[in-house]
Amino acid sequence: MDMVEKFRLTGRTAFITGGARGIGKAVAEGFASAGASVVIADVDIDEASKTAAALGSQYGVGTLATRTDVTSQESVNDLISAIDERFGRLDIAFCNAGICINEKAEDMTLEQWSRVIGINLTGVFITAQAAGRYMIAKGTRGSIINTASMSAHIVNVPQPQCAYNASKAGVIQLTKSLAVEWAPHGIRVNSISPGYIGTELVKASPTLIPLIKTWNDMAPMHRLGEPEELQSVTLYLASDASSFTTGSDVVVDGAFTCF
Ligand SMILES: NC(=O)c1ccc[n+]([C@@H]2O[C@H](COP(=O)([O-])OP(=O)(O)OC[C@H]3O[C@@H](n4cnc5c(N)ncnc54)[C@H](O)[C@@H]3O)[C@@H](O)[C@H]2O)c1
After folding, report:
1. CA 184 / ligand 1 centre spacing (Å)
2. Ramachandran region, residue 63 (left: φ > 0; alpha: ψ -120 to 50; beta: rest)
3. For residue 18, which atom of ligand 1 is closest to its CA?
4. Are the C-beta atoms of 225 and 259 separated by less than 8 Å?
5. Ligand 1 nearest atom to the CA of residue 75, by list position
6. Based on C-alpha coordinates, what's the Rg of the chain?
7. For residue 203, what pLDDT band results from cuts at 50, 70 and 90?
8. Quick one: average pLDDT of 49-68?
9. Atom 38, ligand 1: which residue's CA is nearest?
10. In this structure, which CATH number among 2.40.160.60, 3.20.20.70, 3.20.20.370, 3.40.50.720 belongs to the domain 4-247?
């Protein structure tokens, strides 16, 4: 097979949680440019609808926007039903929605902790489980990609974010567990661990904006990553090009975690 052909997603359907903006939006664009129909699943339905419409008109692929809250099993089940009704198949799940709360460990409330774990870890479990159940029932040899973070590997400084770091470490071990359990079904499960990426999560946070220079000084490449720099790695993981890659975590951080 032609090597480039292995990266094509023509005829496949992907959902992207947190796909309205940031990393999810860029990855959705990467999938659409490779020919996949894309489902933008986000709590922000207005932004999700705009993203879906833009990708549909630019790449001529099928699109759908859903108001999906990854912390709710009912909401995620509705997402799967909407995909089934519209496309009749699901090949790729990008479980990506996430938030960060910066708070010192000694001051963090249980409510803050639970919110971060609820979206970043339990939300990934809920969405990956729903995708896996659907793929198993349909006999689809699908690909599930979860967004972890370099924060699963190192402790970010100077901002305190223990719940976030713990949630992302959990995503990597959840990913490996699902990869082992679902390998017999032909479903592959991998994660990505981005370094600092210039999205709204970072650039729109008043507490984080002043830290960007500090991080860039610490970073070997002295810059943030761009969301588009995660398109090729997720296309690799989503496509047949990665047919023997499962249970892996791919760090994309410009060498930030190397020392
Ligand atoms: N930006 C970074 O530096 C960076 C680095 C490593 C990992 N990540 C991870 O990448 C993922 C995306 O981050 P981003 O920077 O694009 O963030 P972002 O804030 O720009 O976008 C996140 C999207 O998720 C949506 N969302 C939030 N809660 C949701 C919920 N409960 N259900 C469904 N959607 C929800 C938001 O509406 C938003 O559209 C997150 O998991 C984040 O932890 C980000």
Report:
1. 31
2. beta
3. 24
4. no
5. 32
6. 17
7. confident
8. 98
9. 18
10. 3.40.50.720
Nearest CA to ligand 1 atom 1: 197
Average pLDDT over residues 66-89: 98
**How far, in Å, from the CA of 17 to the mean position of ligand 1?**
9
Q: Are 237 and 179 in contact (CB under 8 A)?
A: no
d(CA 70, CA 67): 10
Q: Does residue 164 have an active-site annotation?
A: yes
Atom 36 in ligand 1: which residue has the minimum CA distance? 18
What percent of the chain has a predicted confidence (pLDDT) above 70? Answer: 100
Tell me if the pTM is above 0.90.
yes
Residue 45 phi/psi, 5-degree rounding, is: -70, -30
Distance 99 CA to ligand 1 centre (A): 5
pLDDT band at residue 205 under the 50/70/90 scheme: confident
Interval between CA 111 and ligand 1 midpoint (Å) = 19
How is the chain split into domains, by residue range? 4-247
